[in-house]
From TrEMBL:
The keyword Zinc-finger does not apply. The lineage of its organism: Eukaryota, Viridiplantae, Streptophyta, Embryophyta, Tracheophyta. Keywords: Disulfide bond, Membrane, Transferase, Transmembrane, Transmembrane helix. GO terms for cellular component: membrane. The chain crosses the membrane at residues 54-77. The gene is LOC104608365. This is Glycosyltransferase family 64 protein C4-like. GO terms for molecular function: glycosyltransferase activity. Belongs to the glycosyltransferase 64 family.
Length: 306
């Protein structure tokens, strides 16, 4: 029995020592065939993960595009607004319309500041019946010339109104070279870089009103069942997280709204503003919203009230 086992061992040892290409090829094929399922599974796993990541990236990309388009429509933002709104020469700058009344020290500061902003093509000062002194006019013209940082110096002019009426703040202005008007009170200072950014926002949607002072109004129902509008200041905007208007104390709008305000605004609103000497900025904001069917755009930026 031992001899038989020994013989078999010898045979096995002799066989293993002989070279056979067929055996070598078979053995090699056996090694790779045992590894190939693992390799294929690994490759499939990597391809599957790559497909999932690609699909996820595409979903996120299209979701961002969809959300951006929805936000744009809600905000009245139209980056592809027709170029026929205004000629390129008038889109190059804006006219600063400063509202003042017997506050010459504030007016001097405001004119000096806005003259230094590169986008200011002209500065108009709106004032009621009392004409400014010649010395004040000369002083302000010198400020505009000295403070301007561009070769093209802004035009400067007082727009006087003989009639004591707050509606005159939005009378049409002759000889304007810009479509954009920046309406601002004499006690509000907007840094030039912030103002220029707001101007680019307005250029993307020139029919809307773009401003720095948001306000809120909403419909409320009294105990008697009668519905009426309530007006909320800044704290209403902060608390509710929304706004429905921007005030003309610091806002851009198209010059065409001066004509609409003067000639198309309902007479009852003109009478109310004349009688109460208030709410002219609310009237302008709602006029623009009514004409466009779009809300205003609030630009968040630091401004200073002096």
């Amino acid at each position: 029995m031992a001899a038989i086992i020994g013989a078999r061992d010898n045979i096995s040892a002799g066989d293993s020592g002989l070279y056979s290409p067929a055996k070598e090829k078979a053995a090699t094929r056996g090694v790779y065939s045992s590894r190939s399922p693992l390799l294929l599974r690994r490759i499939r796993q990597l391809l599957g993960a790559a497909k999932v990541k690609l699909l996820l990236a595409l979903c996120i990309f299209f979701a961002v595009i969809f959300i951006s388009s929805r936000i744009g429509s809600l905000m009245g933002w139209n980056p592809h607004y027709p170029s026929s709104v205004s000629s390129p020469s008038r889109r190059g700058g804006y006219t600063v319309l400063i509202n003042t009344w017997k506050r010459n020290s504030l007016l001097r500061q405001a004119v000096a500041h806005y003259a230094s902003c590169s986008g200011a093509d002209a500065i108009h000062v709106w004032s009621e019946s009392d004409p400014p002194s010649n010395s004040l006019i000369d002083y302000l013209r010198d400020i505009v010339f000295s403070k301007s940082q561009t070769a093209h110096k802004p035009n400067f002019r007082f727009d006087l109104n003989e009639e004591d009426n707050l509606n005159n703040r939005f009378k049409p202005i002759e000889d304007l070279r810009t479509d954009a008007i920046f309406s601002v009170d004499d006690d509000v200072i907007v840094p030039c870089y912030t103002l220029n950014f707001a101007f680019t926002v307005w250029q993307s949607s020139p029919s809307t009103m773009v401003g720095f002072v948001p306000r809120m109004h909403w419909l409320d129902v009294g105990k008697d069942g009668v519905a009426y509008y309530k007006y909320g200041g800044w704290w209403s905007v902060w608390w509710m997280g929304t706004y429905s208007m921007v005030l003309s104390k610091a806002a851009f709008f198209h010059r065409k709204y001066l004509d609409l305000y003067t000639f198309k605004m309902p007479l009852s609103i003109h009478d109310y503003v004349t009688r109460e000497r208030n709410c002219v900025d609310i009237a302008m904001s709602l006029l623009v919203a009514n004409a466009t069917g779009a809300p205003p755009i609030w630009v968040r930026g630091k401004i200073y009230e002096i």
